[in-house]
What we know:
Elements: E1 6-11, E2 29-33, H1 45-52, E3 71-79, E4 90-99, E5 102-112, E6 117-120, H2 125-152
Antiparallel strand pairs: 1-2, 3-4, 4-5, 5-6
Amino acid sequence: MACPFFLPIEKLADAAWLHAARLPLGCGWSGHCTAPGHEGASPSPEELRQFCNLGYAQGCVRLPRERAWDSVRFAARTIGNGAENETSGRIQIRYVCEREHRPAEHGMLEFDPAEARWEHTHHDRRVQRMAECFLESYVERRKKSEVTSAAAI
């Protein structure tokens, strides 16, 4: 779950997390805060580790009291043209925006890799950007898995 006010910009090369692939966006990201009154603020490395990349940032001084969401989480799956052709299919990104550990909004976004475009996007640019980052991590993990599987043959 990432902070809903976090706008990720680029992957963090510094692997400060033990299991970065388990992070909500698939790895650690640097970026900007979009909380009201703090738009464009660059979080410190500690804030990125403790709040931005993890959501439920109660200790963050920029987190507004009034907000629709506390965190955003994602899951992905590839919809193929049959089991043997799964890698050429569309990618569905399911999202849940949570407030007080309960779903406040949820839905599905869809990306078509063949056309390199989003079929369904989110209305909030932050959530959409997080979905793009999550998608990037998801695709990289799948490619690594495919290479590993091919090498084992």
